[in-house]
Design goal:
There is one protein chain. The protein is α/β, with parallel strands linked by helices and 281 residues long. The chain has a single domain, classed as Aldolase class I (TIM Barrel, Alpha-Beta Barrel), CATH 3.20.20.70. The chain is 31% helix and 24% strand. The chain contains eight helices and 16 strands. The chain has an eight-stranded parallel barrel with strand order 3-4-9-10-11-12-15-16, surrounded by seven helices. Strands 6-7-14-13 form a four-stranded antiparallel sheet, with no helix packed on it. Helix 2 packs parallel to helix 3 and helix 3 packs parallel to helix 4. The structure holds flavin mononucleotide. Flavin mononucleotide binds next to strand 3, strand 7, strand 14 and helix 7.
Length: 281
């Protein structure tokens, strides 16, 4: 997969990589995407905020903790870079100035070490109930592009909204994105068996997300206006899930839930799928 000037050696990428990634085979991955960092750390839940809804479906609590970009740079990035594959730092911010600030920090501190960033697009924090729209995506992407410069790869990760994803993707493209990732988690509610327990609000990932994410990839790949390569993200557990995404128009995939449920899965898939490069990409 060609991402600007960067060539990914394998279609399998690890998303939301655990900070303490450990084990063999990760050097075969196409790329490693970090967990999302923010400029200021955000308190909240960590691993204890991830519930297994069923065998291969997870729910991430809404109030997940995020580390600061500074901690990422000082404590976690050197380890992730040690695998020798391109590393993308996932970033988010409540508004455009926040995206500019964190991108400026990363460009200054580690711009020459990372392959680029993944822009996690979330609801703008305007306190006015503003909806996420293409203008916000374009401006956020543009702000990051301006700070990181033309050589960095910028992957914009979009929400799992098949009806709206093409408009948001066009915003990313106009803002200077290098690639798209489809998709992020789907807002959902899980009711624990205990009828007295509070419903759990969070983001759904894994098996249950895959058909929605496949549809999103398909929508993007079948819009002639959208020229960017696409990472298929959602419920990848097997090689046949990888080929499903490629059939729908993705050029690579990201694995998050699969790795969380079975550490080492992304490395194993990368070994199994190395023949998919470069013929099918
Ligand atoms: C344990 C866990 C942590 C995650 N953390 C992040 C994160 O920090 N930033 C992000 O953009 N997505 C995060 N995600 C979402 C994934 O990157 C991915 O978009 C989504 O889970 C769908 O892929 P999957 O079905 O393979 O998990 C996380 C997902 C999981 C399961």
């Amino acid at each position: 997969m060609q991402l600007g000037t960067l060539t990914l050696q394998n279609p399998i990428c690890l998303a939301a990589a655990p900070w303490q990634l450990d084990g063999a085979g990760y050097e075969r991955l196409g790329a490693i995407f970090t967990r999302t960092v923010t400029m200021e750390p955000k308190p909240g839940l960590y691993e204890e905020g991830i519930w297994q809804v069923n065998e291969q479906t997870l729910l991430n609590a809404t109030n997940m903790r995020t580390e600061s970009a500074e901690i990422l740079v000082q404590e976690h990035l050197p380890h992730l870079l040690s695998y020798g594959v391109p590393v993308f730092v996932s970033i988010t911010a409540p508004g455009i100035p926040g995206f500019r600030k964190i991108a400026r920090f990363l460009a200054r501190e580690v711009g020459s070490q990372i392959a680029g960033v993944e822009v996690y697009i979330a609801q703008p924090d305007t306190e006015k109930g503003a909806e996420l729209n293409a203008k916000f995506v374009r401006e956020a992407t543009q702000a990051v592009r301006n700070e990181l410069g033309p050589a960095a790869a910028i992957v914009v990760k979009l929400p799992p909204w098949p009806e709206h994803i093409r408009g948001l993707a066009l915003g990313a493209q106009e803002g200077g994105a290098t690639a798209l990732a489809a998709t992020n988690v789907l807002k959902a509610l899980h009711l624990p068996d205990d009828a007295t327990a509070e419903p759990l609000a969070g983001g759904l990932s894994g098996e249950a997300l895959r058909p929605v994410a496949l549809r999103c990839v398909w929508e993007l790949a079948h819009d002639a206006r959208i020229k960017l390569p696409i990472f298929g993200t959602g419920g990848v557990f097997t090689q046949s899930h990888v080929t499903d995404y490629l059939r729908c128009g993705a050029t690579a995939v990201q694995v998050a839930s699969g790795e969380w449920l079975e550490p080492g899965l992304s490395a194993r898939l990368a070994a199994e799928c190395s023949h998919l490069v470069p013929a099918n990409l």
